[in-house]
Amino acid sequence: MIIISIHLNTIKQIIFKIEGGRRMKKIVEIVVCTLLIGIIILSTFSVCVLSSDNINIKNDINIKKTKYFSIYYLRSYLLDRVNNYREKYLNLNKVRKTNEHFFNIFSEWSPTEIVSTESTANTTYCSIATDSADAVHVVWEDETNYMGCGSDKDIFYKMKPKGGTWTSTEVVSSESSTESSLASIAVESDGTVHVTWDEYTETTVDVYYKMKPFGGSWTTAECISLESCDDSGLSSLVVDLDGNVHVAMTGINVEGDTYIYYKMKPFGGSWTTEELVTYDSQGYPYLPTLDFDSDGGIHIAWEEMNSTTSIFNIYYKMKTNGGSWTAAEAITNSNILASYPSLVIDRDDNVHVTWSDLSPYYWMDICYRMKLKNGGWSDIDTLSINSCAMMSQISAGSDGSVSVVFDDIDLYGSGNYEIFYRSKPSGGDWTNFEIVTDDFNQDGMFPSIAIDSSGCVHVAWEGYNYDNIYYKNNGYVNLPPEIPIIDGETSGKPKVEYEYTFNTTDPNNNNVYYYINWSDGTPDIYIGPFASGETAVQKHIWAKKGTYTMKAKAIDVYNSESDWATLEITIPKDRSINNLFLRLLDQFPHMFSILRHLMGL
User: Fold this and answer.
1) Minimal CA–CA distance to 265: which of 345, 180, 350, 192?
2) Phi, psi values for residue 585, rounded to 5°
3) Same fold flag, 113-473 and 485-571
4) pLDDT tens, 41-68?
5) Among 345, 340, 235, 249, CA closest to 291
6) Where are the domains of the chain?
7) pLDDT number for residue 311
8) Topology (CATH) of 113-473
9) Domain covering 485-571, topology
10) Cα(452)–Cα(129) distance, rounded to whole angstroms?
11) Nearest-CA neighbor of 356 among 390, 311, 306?
12) Is 70 exceeded by the pLDDT of residue 169?
C-alpha cells in the first residue's frame, strides 16, 4: 500500500508590481491552503484516504489583514488552491480499469461538442444559461487574440438556438485593455443576456457588467464595483422573472477586511447602492452564490474562513422582498475545509446547496443540503462516489427537480477526471450516477449546468490543460440515418467488376457506416465511417448468371440503423461467340481439343 499524503503550504508572499513602474504594492501575506492530493492504491481497489496526522490547518495557516489585501491576491489564493489540487491528482499514475463502469442508462447524452471553436489559446471558467426558447448561452475566459482583443484574458460568448448550431464567438469585454476573468451569465426569458466579470486595472480589481437584448448588440461595459471597497470581484449573477438583475460579490475594504455585498438593477433602471450582507461575519467570507424565490426574496450562500480557527465553512442568508437580511446560518460543520458552494431555489421555494468538503478521514467529496420553505436544513448527503471530487454546480427544473454536476475521478472506469451527473425529483431520492463525459478522452473539469423549460439538462466544462470549452445535453434523440441511395449497374456480365455508390444523410449529422449484403453468397461487408452526405464507393464482381437483390443499410456511430435499401441486379447468360465455344468445350473437352488448341484457348 502506497500512501501519498497531503501537504499544506504555509504563508505565501505575493508581490504585485504596478505596470509602468509607478510603484510596488506592499508585500502581503495570504493563506495558500494548497491541496496536494494523492491516491491510495489497494490491490484491485482505488480508495482515497486522508490521514488526520498530516493536517494541522489551525497552526499552519495564518491570515493577516493588511491595507492592501485585495481581490487580486484572494483570487490568486483560490486559483492556487484549485490548480495545485488538480495538478497533483491528474499527474498521478492513475489506476485504469474497464470491468466496472457507469453507463448512461437513464438518459441520452448528446455527443461532445466544442464550443470554443475559434479559440487558439487557454480557455477556462465557463458559465452556462438557457432562455425560455431553450437556447443555450455560454461565456468563458479566453486568452485568444480574437478580433483584435489582444492576448490578455477576455470574456467570450456564444449561443446555440434549440435545434441549431453555435453562433460565432463574440468578445464581451471588448473595451478592456487588461485582464478580464471569472464571468457569470444569466438570461431573461426573452433572450436578453446579462454578464458580469472581474476586470483588472493597474491598481484595483472591479466588477463590470454588460447586457445584450435578444437580437441586439452588447451595451457599453459598466463598472458596478462597490462604493466602500478598495477591490471587488468574484461575482454571482441572476435575473428574476421581472427582469431585475441581482449580483452578489466579494468586497475588500481599505483595512483588508472581506465582505459579501449585494446589488440590484431593477428592470429598465439603474443599479442600487451596495448592501452589506455579511455584517455579522467572524472571518473572511468570499465566493458568493445567489438565487431568488417566487416572492422576490434573495438567498445567498458563501465560503468563509474563521479568523480564529482557520477552518472553512459554508454560510447562508436570505432577505424577503423589501425586508432585511437574516442572521448568518452555518450550513456545514467542516473540520477542515468546506468550499465552492452552489445554491439554487426550486419551484416550491426550497433552498438547495452543494459544496466540496474535505475532512480528516476522506478526500474531497461533494455534499448537499436542502432547506424547506419555512423549514430547517436537512441532513448532509454525500453525492460523489470516488471521494476525489472538486467542483459542483446545482440547477433546478420547472418540475421541482434539482440536478447536480461535478468533476470526480472515474476510478473504476477510464481513470480520468470525468463530469458526473445526478438528479433528484421533487420529494424523491437522488438518481444513480451518470458520466456526462463518457465519450470524452481526456480529463474534464469545472462543469456548469443549466436546465431549460423542457427539462433538458445542458452542461459545459473545460478540458484539462485549458484546451477548449465543451458542451453536452441529455435531451439528445439519436435519430437513425435515412435509407441510403444505391447507384450502379443493374445488369451486366459475370466475372466483370462493377462499381456501386452508397449515400445517406444523418439527421444528427453523425458519421455513418454501410452494411452491404450482395445476396450472391459472398461475405457481407461493413465499410466506413463516412460523413453524413458523403458518398461511399464499393466494387463487386458477380461470378455467375442470375438475378440478385443487393441490400445496404446505414448505421451511425451510435448504432442507430436505417431500414434496408435494395437494388436488383440482373446478370444474364453471356451469348458471345467466344463464350459459346467455351461452354461447348467445357461440356465436350475431348471432342473439341483440336479446336481449343487452334483458338489458343
Assistant:
1) 192
2) -65, -35
3) no
4) 222 222 232 233 333 333 333 333 333 3
5) 345
6) 12-90, 113-473, 485-571
7) 85
8) Neuraminidase (2.120.10)
9) Immunoglobulin-like (2.60.40)
10) 8
11) 390
12) yes
